[in-house]
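Board notes, transcribed. Complex of a protein with zinc ion.
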Amino acid sequence: MQEIIRQLLAELGEDPTREGLLNTPKRVEKALNFLTSGYNMDIDEVLNDALFTVDYSEMVIVKDIDFYSLCEHHLLPFFGKCHVAYIPQQKVIGLSKIPRLVEMFARRLQIQERLTSQIADTIREKIRPLGVAVVVEATHLCMSMRGVEKQNSFAVTSSMLGAFRDSARTRMEFLELIKLRSGARTPADLVESDCLLDK
Ligand SMILES: [Zn+2]
C-alpha cells in the first residue's frame, strides 16, 4: 500500500521524498488499516458469550454511541452518534457489545444508510427481539469540506423494525428518549443523506 500512497502524493503534485512526507505512506497505511479494521471483525466473535436469556421485555436503549466511518464515495470521514434500542423477546445482548457492533460496521467503507440498517439487521438476526430501532446522526466531511450545500452535511437515518415500525407509540417513546440533535420528531421528519446521491 505504501508504494501506491507515494504515487498518490506525486500525483497530487507533491514530492514524496521531502522530509515531512517520508514517513507519510507508512502512517497512512497504518491509519487506513485501522479505519477499515471492521472488515476483519467477525460478528460472532464480537458478541461472543454476551447473549443472555432473560425474562425481560422492556425497551433496552444504548444512546449517544460515538462512531467514525469513511464514506465510500469520497473516502472521507463521516462521524456522529448512533442510538440503538430493542425490545427483547427472550435474549439480550451484553450492553458493552452494542458499541462494539456499531464499531465493527463503522470501520469499513460505508454509506450512512447501510451502516444504520446493518446494525439493526444484525441485532434482529442475533436475538430475534420484538423490535429494533437504530438512529444515526452524522456530519459528512465530504459535503462540508467540499463546500457542497453545507446545510446537507448533517444527516439523520433510521431503521425501525418490528414493534418500532408497527407501533407509533413505541417509536415515539424511543425518539423522545434519544432527543435528536436535528430536532426531528418522527422518522418522516428525518433528513436524507445527500452523500448517497452525490456520486
Ligand atoms: Zn461522500
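The longest strand covers residues 60-71. The mean pLDDT is 89.
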